Amino acid sequence: MKHQRSRVRRVTTLIAAGALSAGLLGIGSTATASASTPPHTSAHQAITQGLIKPPYDINNFLLGVAGAPTEYLEQVDSLTEHQVRITRRTGPHTIVDTWLKDPSRFRPAYLTIDLLDVEGNSVTRYQFNYPQITKVAPPDRSIQTLTIAFDRMIIS
């Protein structure tokens, strides 16, 4: 059973990495790394320090707001040059909920989405500068989809 879960995680990680990479192929040179990109963080470390809750299921994406690990995402898709769609669990438990309640008062300088390996370590980080929530799909059984526009993407 444990071997099967490990295999499923590896396959899920590879599929997720492939999907994100395929979406980025059309972007070209706008997706460049920066020396000012924050260092990768370990999801395991964030969980053990009580900063975030462990995922409900096998989740390979970790959302960060202004450099702080915030929550695991259910899904990341529809990545374009200036927009990304994320699916998350709802609840008044993270800074994302604060952002949703009053987007005019709180707007982070950047978001990050880390693609995690099976041990919870960041493999690839996508940083989205000057993000703005443009669409909020109504929750469906505690799952919520957000469309986020951004000015610039940095991949490291």
UniProtKB/TrEMBL annotation:
Keywords: Signal. It comes from the Bacteria. Residues 1-35 form the signal peptide. This is Predicted protein. The lineage of its organism: Bacteria, Bacillati, Actinomycetota, Actinomycetes, Kitasatosporales.
